[in-house]
Amino acid sequence: MTVTINGSPAALPDDPRVSLLDLLREHLHLFGAKKGCNQGACGACTVLVDGERVLSCLALAVQYEGRSITTVEGLAPQGDMHPLQKAFISHDGFQCGYCTPGQICSAVGMARELRQGVPSHVTADLRAQTIPPSHDELRERMSGNVCRCGAYNGIVAAIAETFEGAPT
């Protein structure tokens, strides 16, 4: 049984109880996704599975057989930074940096949701084909990612700058 992680195949562990987060960190030595609360409450472990946000601490690795997983390390595989990573630096979207990989993966997945017209609690038009990345939309959609340092203004500014010109 295999899974694709950041474009490369990886064997799934024999033990079906291994979480996706532990597979990434302990077996594959990909340390971007962080073990924060280990209960799905902080978002530090967020990765993308087939482009959708997943809390890897709550997911069993074997659930993702044959699927494609992207961690923060795989967002810009050519060695350059993803535009959102650059925006986090320019807007001081992090302080200690612990939550940053999860914030970035979550924001990339969130942008996909906006493009697909997936509504949130604050979406005004539930029938909209696409949803503009307004300040309220960004804050609501990123509310599952906790930053204990309080860098939220920089995080929202970085996300807005990165995705404002992108087709929504």
Automatic annotation (TrEMBL):
Chain ranges of the 2Fe-2S ferredoxin-type domain: 1-75
GO molecular function: 2 iron, 2 sulfur cluster binding; metal ion binding; oxidoreductase activity, acting on the aldehyde or oxo group of donors
Keywords noted in UniProt: 2Fe-2S, Iron, Iron-sulfur, Metal-binding, Oxidoreductase
InterPro entries: 2Fe-2S-bd, 2Fe-2S-bd_dom_sf, 2Fe-2S_ferredoxin-like_sf, 2Fe-2S_ferredoxin-type, 2Fe2S_fd_BS, Aldehyde_Oxdr_Iron-Sulfur, Beta-grasp_dom_sf
Matches recorded under Pfam families: Fer2, Fer2_2
SUPFAM superfamilies the record matches: 2Fe-2S ferredoxin-like, CO dehydrogenase ISP C-domain like
Coiled coil: none
Top-level taxonomic group: Bacteria
Protein name: Xanthine dehydrogenase YagT iron-sulfur-binding subunit
Species of provenance: Variovorax paradoxus
Gene designation: yagT_2
